[in-house]
Amino acid sequence: MAPVTSENIAMEPEAAASPAAVDDRFLNELVARAQAEGLQLTGEGGLLQQLTKRLLESALEGEMTDHLGYDRHDPAGKNGGNSRNGKRSKTVITDVGPVEIEVPRDREGAFEPQIVKKRQRRLTGVDEMVLSLSAKGLTHGEISAHLAEVYGAEVSKQTISTITDSVMEGMAEWQARPLDCVYPVVFIDCINVKIRDGQVANRPIYVALAVTAEGHRDILGLWAGGEGGEGAKHWLRVLTELKNRGVEDVLMLVCDGLKGLPDAVGEVWPQTVVQTCVVHLLRASFRYAGRQDWDKIAKALKPVYTAPTEDAATSRFLEFCEEWGQKYPAIVRLWENAWAEFVPFLQFDAEIRRIVCTTNAIESVNARIRRAVRARGHFPSENAAMKCVYLAVMSLDPTGAGRKRWTTRWKRALQAFDIAFDGRLTHNRI
Description:
Elements: H1 19-36, H2 47-68, E1 84-94, E2 97-106, H3 124-135, H4 140-151, H5 157-165, H6 167-175, E3 182-197, E4 199-211, E5 217-224, H7 232-244, E6 249-255, H8 261-268, E7 273-276, H9 278-287, H10 294-305, H11 310-324, H12 329-342, H13 350-356, H14 360-376, H15 382-394, H16 401-420, H17 424-427
Helix pairs in contact: 3-15, 4-5, 7-8, 9-10, 9-12, 10-11, 14-15
């Protein structure tokens, strides 16, 4: 099949009156000719590459005409000062593979093409593919190999690193964006990542996920922690940052026994109820028990966290201590240390309990992040780890299909929150 040119895509005058018909007929003819002559549609030298080349070059010629003010070979441009000055070859990476194009030049060197800018070697779709693959946890080498195998595009690991580094500016803007003035509940959880700093060591990255007053999920930010854990000073800095971004009140904050966090919450939002995640307490309890006793331990603890009142929960816990305290004293000590942050939700009705006694709200987010983190193994730096986690967060529910289901589940709970907290949820939004 002959290369696609302006001559063999010319349209008859009568056909121009019906763009849709012309498009269908033209495309059908191109595909039929390609198949008849054995030309592949995709891959090196395929029809899609030829079309992409021709369309890009036509667009660049159009931009040059706009820049100079006259068409090629138009007498109006004679002795008009600036003029066309040949072309230069350039290869760009596109969704259909590498495409070599001819970029027009002008004598004054003032032409600034837009569809393929100066020094641009990739079209937007390639960047989006790289970011999407990176969000799934693929290493730079794996992304490079994937693009070479599927698209025939040679993209170096350094280029991929440059593409993914470009998200850091967007991450900084996202991390500093204004927030709502009040949230019914904020969940704070930790993801451990492996970072090679001399030797590979676990480092925490903290995720703050809020539920808005409309029932939407909103990730407020990401913060890297140190090797030795964080105290009240660290959490005071994090919560003050959230307050400076507009968060005046949080009704309830759910976490997993993060040291120093309750004290920091008391300083920033004195009315906020700090609640320990019951699911995390149960999981921590199982770590101290033999696997053969897990079901029994779960059954014995259920009356504690489902008790109607704090007094009833205390009675059920004493019964648990009598039955299991001698065999598993570490479980008893775990619950005693967490008791002050465990019991607050017992004063609320079933709708609020159902929400705050578990971290299901954040577990789906963490699952996506952990998949990306595990796929990478370890990271060369803290910035590389934060970049991976951020990309994973940005890839959550991109179509918004889960947003409606999420909002529907929260409607009754939001009403219960507003009643239980004396209208703070709606009053602070007025």
